[in-house]
Amino acid sequence: MWRLALRTLKFRRTSFVATFLAMFLGAAIVIGCGGLMETGVRMAADPLRLDGAPVVVTGEQTYDGAALTERHRIDPALVGEVARADGVGEAVGDVSFPATVLKDGKALTGEDASYGHGWASARLAPYTLAAGGSPAAGGEVVLDAGLAERAGVRPGSAVDVVVGGETRRFTVSGVTGPRGGDDADAAVFFSDEQARTLAGGRIDSIGVLPKDGADTAAVADAVRSAVGDRAEVLTGERRGLAELPGTLSSQRTVVILAAIFGSSVVLIVMFGVASTLGLSLQQRTREMALLRAVGSTPRQLRRMILTETAVLSVGSVLLALYPGYLLGKLLFRVLTSSGVVSASIVYHAGWMPMAVGAVVTVLAAAGATRFAGRRAARTEPVAALAESAVGTRWFSVPRLLIALFFLANGIGLAVATATVMEDGPTLASTAGPASVLFCIGLALLAPGITKAMVALLHLPVRAFSGISGMLALRNAKTANVRMAGAVAPIVLLIGIATGTLYMQATEDDVSQRSYDRNILADYVLDSTAGGFAPDVVDRVRATPGVAAASEFVTSRGFVDAPDGRADAEFRGVSAEGVRQSLDLRPVAGSLAGLHGDTVALSDKKAEEYGVGIGDRLPLRLGDGTAVRPTVVALYADNPKQQYVTLPAATLAPHTSDGLPHQILARSEPGGGPGVREALAALAASVPGTELDDGDSLAGRNNQIQQILVAANYTIVAMIVGYAAITVVNTLVAVTRKRRAEFGLQQLTGATRRQVLGMLTVEGVLIGIIATVLGTIASAATIVPYSMVKADSYLPSGSLGIYLAVVGGSLVLVFGATLLPSWRGMRTPAVDAVNAA
Fold first, then answer.
1. Which of 209, 227, 242, 239 has the alpha carbon at shortest distance from 73?
2. Distance (Å, rounded) from C-alpha 777 to C-alpha 267?
3. Taking the model in full, what pTM does it have?
């Protein structure tokens, strides 16, 4: 049986290459998405500055199982407790805060943001002095080699450093040697006492150096017992997370992306492999009948088909392991380059994604062999003499039940999206897969749908296409299963591409318009030097022509609502200028009361949280700090901008940098260009400050949207590319199989032009049917998503998106049918018939 299977593979190379390619690409894509999922779940980062400490103690970066977005600092008293734990040789406290070095009064910013640390933590990297000495006094600093070179300073030179929004002059006491080969931030080292003061008295992490010969795992356990639940103890590659505050918040994004697209990919790959293998077996009906005629039993044929499938699936999976790893790494690189996740996170793709890719591919092949191979093995010998009658039966109860299962689930997800899901980051998790399920359900019923639609199109096709149309219609009626095999993958391509692209276009448009309406400020000042000192906003207000100014801080945290924890976005503002800077329309209380321990929120959210004016709202800020501010104002709800508003002076200290990075300014009516010039002069006097128009905030918000767009489009392009390859595989295989048919048509009087005309009409029929079904399937994603996002049944985005998707599909259809047919008809018709 093995010899027969291998000989069959040898003499049917075209169809088996198509099947092998579908399995190979499918396994690679599943492995790639699996690697992305494993990376998100493990979320580890190699340490840079803390590389010399095998054990690191840092603040707990989660609250109630959810990741915090800002650094959670720890009590300095823990350093002594950790130092007394068994096996600990030394415990070194580490702080990190923005410290921007100036050159000629301008901030040295760019790719290398500089941060200040205590000199004691330099040994954790380790940094070593190349020149000069350590910072013994409060007015001395040590710069790393790269930063010293950029600033043009050496030991004994004076250097200006912006810390806490203020410019201070220090003496360079030393320069560290170049470390090379790592991506650590540019470092400015202060004396330990001064660093602790500049950091606000708390520390970020503790580097633990075990005693000589001490076991790292045992030391880590002893440290955990010492700190309890007051801090987190990291070892191995997770130590790097202590240097990346807020990184765990991107874990959810990566896992959701991998889960959404991974599940869709698994379904698509299983469908693609099954359809390709099923088509290959369908085209071998005559071969199976002849084998039956010479004495083969159905069981022997099933074993032969199973053996062929095993050879193909095992071979394709083995060859796909490394390409799948590289594909997953490419997807992860897109996420890191887009800013979705830090580039310091380590990509992981172990045995699990490899196993999942192998199992999915093998199961898809086994399932196709089970259903398609069983029918092929039962082919009666007489079918060899009646090949024209073969391929007309398609309906079966299992096929109908499976199709209804996919359709019902697709409809269920669409309904859930429109009625159950709220506008939020998880909305796409139900909307996206709806079109995939609907596509597969329609594809399973494609033979019956194709036959019905061909009957509807009969008259217009005959009226406009003559003899070529008549031949095409006859083929479509007698070989509706074959035509449906070509329609199915195109439905998948059009449905997924259209649904995803319009879903993303709607998201972008709604977010952009909502943000545009919410920002009233004419100008925005940005700090690239760690934030603004408290007096800068007062200087902006005093600028001639400025009507109002407000500090602007953004963060994420949680509301401890009565029915459980709720994610929340926070905005920090200045009460004196918020009404002129942001479109917040009070319905109760006054925004002027936003000082100290107070909060304002929308009336709808207040009702949801069960609070009103004068009540206290329990919040958990981005660094994990619990607060209970008093509600002083309620404003009209904006479903697209649901922020909880706090005083900037309250929110900023609980962000990683501790200061507001933006100031919004509204000019007086008729202020003219003089206001911009005055603000530009002010910005030039504050190191590291840039001036931009108010609409730049909307642009930046759109840029944030584009972060996920890049990842989204990359994964969608991968899925659509696989669907496109499946289309080409299917159509080329079908066309090559029909060479004998084309030869007979030529021998009976049809010209080459008429045969190509017939194929063109068939292509048009395939395109029309697939476009209708694909559009219906995409509506399962587009309509409910648009209803929730934009309160409209129609999505945002240009009609050109739809035309491009349909046009690209038609190009694939005609390219994969006309080109192989034209090449095949260069062979004499008699030889083409004899070759069959």
1. 242
2. 15
3. 0.74
